[in-house]
Specification:
The protein contains seven helices and five strands, in the order βααβααβββααα. 52% of the residues lie in helices and 12% in strands. α2 packs across α4 and α3 packs across α4. The protein is α+β, with helices and mostly antiparallel strands. A three-stranded antiparallel β-sheet has the order 2-4-3. A two-stranded parallel ribbon has the order 1-5.
């Protein structure tokens, strides 16, 4: 009876395994482990080799022209960093099982800086609305202080009790007083600041 060894089933391709890319920001906590695992030229060549064709450690050692111990060390570090993983098992001619290593992700991308998750227009509008809101609150506070500090008319007899001003009276007073001026100047400054900021981004 003929031997069925060696047995070398094909490893599924990156597309068949539906892998997604690994995005690692340099400021991220995971960046240290990934960069440490890839700090060696041998480790980087090993990772590139398993992307080309998943293989066991012995074949990777032959491919990289290095020792099995060196490849085993780097495989362990790359597995710990979740950059490669066993994707299938081969059986050698001697009947030993060998793990075949392949990538865990479709690509590994290291990047610096934050990704823009919103458009310049929505970011600018949010800044403008927030600035106008703060300016409106400030202008109402200025108007209230100005109204409270206006000189009061002194009466020889007890002053008649004036009714509380209505909303319409407050708005009319606001438009005629410094509150409206503060609001107008604030809106102009906030608008200019938002436009300047968006042009710099």
């Amino acid at each position: 009876m003929s031997s069925l060894l060696p047995l070398k089933p094909a490893a599924a391709s990156i597309r068949d395994r539906a892998l997604t890319p690994l995005l690692v920001e340099l400021d991220d906590d995971d960046a240290d482990e990934v960069l440490s695992a890839l700090s060696s030229t041998t480790a980087r060549r090993l990772l590139a080799a398993v992307y080309d064709d998943p293989r066991p450690a012995s074949e990777l050692a032959d491919e990289l022209d290095t020792t099995l111990q060196t490849v085993g060390y780097h495989i362990e570090r790359l597995v710990d960093a979740e950059l490669i993983e066993p994707v299938t098992t081969w059986v050698s001619a001697q009947g030993r099982e060998m793990a075949v290593y392949g990538p865990t992700r479709s690509a590994v991308v290291l990047f610096a800086g934050a990704e823009r998750t919103e458009s310049k227009l929505s970011s600018g509008l949010r800044t403008l609305v927030a600035g106008v809101g703060v300016t409106l609150v400030g202008s109402v506070a200025v108007q209230a202080l100005w109204t409270a500090r206006r000189p009061q008319v002194r009466y020889a007899a007890p002053a008649p009790t004036a009714p509380e001003p209505s909303v319409a009276e407050f708005v009319a007073s606001y438009l005629a007083g410094p509150g409206a001026l503060v609001l107008l100047v604030g809106v102009v400054l906030v608008s200019l600041g938002a436009v300047w900021t968006q042009r710099r981004v």
